[in-house]
């Protein structure tokens, strides 16, 4: 399999409330972004890693992540956009044209495990579009603007979607281009493929594959790493 990995790290980390972008904050002494890079670097099917960073942070990322730690695979840095979707688009169009599959991952999800990525890659070979996800543990309510409950969807059909999300290269580029043309902005990449009428397969991921969003997430991630439960 010839796979390119795109890791998006060009967000602002507003909800973290820190002066430094959360993907460069340390967990157990190393930047958040280091961990997923390392995991993808260890997967043989992956031939290159494209990291999407904001223009102002390109030098910082190069010095403090890419050069500081040793990665075996070529790592390309490309500029991000004002929304996650635009950052992903710039990442995927900068992958090698001969790659068949692209795996898209949030740089803010450091705890992704190699075995889980491999499972998603294998399924992508069969289904062309897959997302990792976990069944939700809470009861989910749909509410109106005033927070009154409208309905309670059956939990057995509700999954919390994570990254990586894995696609055939041509399909995901086409899906992003269509969204751009239509002015559609989604909160993940599968929704862009769903809009084209394709079926997307959800593959069971890992509850520990959290997205670092607010300060307590750093504590949880560090606890997982320090207790060596990954
Ligand atoms: N314009 C953007 C926005 C987000 N991301 C990346 O997308 C992932 C998930 O986004 P999120 O957690 O929302 O990150 P931020 O946008 O940084 O956070 P916030 O919404 O709190 O500002 C992160 O790895 C983030 O760096 C990106 O590459 N480009
Ligand atoms: C893509 C994603 O990780 C799926 O859960 C997530 O939607 C991206 O983060 P955001 O907080 O919604 O921007």
Automatic annotation (TrEMBL):
Its EC number is 2.7.7.60. It is an enzyme of class 2 (transferase). The record marks 155, 211 as: Positions MEP for the nucleophilic attack. Pfam families: IspD. Pathway: Isoprenoid biosynthesis; isopentenyl diphosphate biosynthesis via DXP pathway; isopentenyl diphosphate from 1-deoxy-D-xylulose 5-phosphate: step 2/6. The record marks 15, 22 as: Transition state stabilizer. GO terms for molecular function: nucleotidyltransferase activity. Keywords: Isoprene biosynthesis, Nucleotidyltransferase, Transferase. It comes from the Bacteria. InterPro entries: IspD (IPR001228), IspD/TarI (IPR034683), IspD/TarI_cytidylyltransf_bact (IPR050088), Nucleotide-diphossugar_trans (IPR029044). It catalyses: 2-C-methyl-D-erythritol 4-phosphate + CTP + H(+) = 4-CDP-2-C-methyl-D-erythritol + diphosphate. Catalyzes the formation of 4-diphosphocytidyl-2-C-methyl-D-erythritol from CTP and 2-C-methyl-D-erythritol 4-phosphate (MEP). Belongs to the IspD/TarI cytidylyltransferase family. IspD subfamily. NCBIfam families: ispD. This is 2-C-methyl-D-erythritol 4-phosphate cytidylyltransferase. It comes from Thermoanaerobacter mathranii subsp. mathranii (strain DSM 11426 / CCUG 53645 / CIP 108742 / A3). The lineage of its organism: Bacteria, Bacillati, Bacillota, Clostridia, Thermoanaerobacterales.
């Amino acid at each position: 399999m010839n796979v390119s990995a795109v890791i998006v790290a060009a967000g602002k980390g507003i909800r973290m409330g820190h002066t430094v972008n959360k993907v460069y904050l340390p967990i157990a002494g190393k930047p958040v972004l280091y961990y997923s890079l390392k995991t993808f670097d260890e997967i043989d099917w992956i031939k290159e890693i494209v990291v999407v960073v904001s223009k102002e942070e390109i030098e910082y990322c190069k010095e403090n992540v890419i050069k500081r730690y040793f990665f075996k695979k070529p790592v390309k840095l490309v500029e991000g956009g004002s929304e996650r979707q635009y950052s992903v688009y710039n990442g995927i169009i900068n992958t090698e044209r001969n790659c068949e599959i692209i795996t898209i991952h949030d740089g803010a999800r450091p705890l992704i495990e190699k075995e889980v990525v491999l499972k998603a890659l294998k399924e992508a070979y069969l289904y062309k579009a897959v997302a990792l996800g976990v069944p939700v543990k809470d009861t989910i309510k749909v509410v109106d603007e005033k927070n009154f409950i409208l309905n309670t969807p059956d939990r057995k059909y509700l999954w919390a979607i994570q990254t990586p999300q894995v696609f055939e290269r041509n399909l995901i580029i086409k899906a992003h281009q269509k969204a751009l043309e239509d002015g559609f902005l989604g909160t993940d990449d599968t929704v862009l493929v769903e809009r084209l009428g394709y079926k997307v397969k959800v593959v069971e991921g890992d509850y520990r594959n959290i997205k670092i969003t607010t300060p307590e997430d750093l504590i949880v991630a560090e606890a997982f790493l320090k207790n060596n439960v990954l």
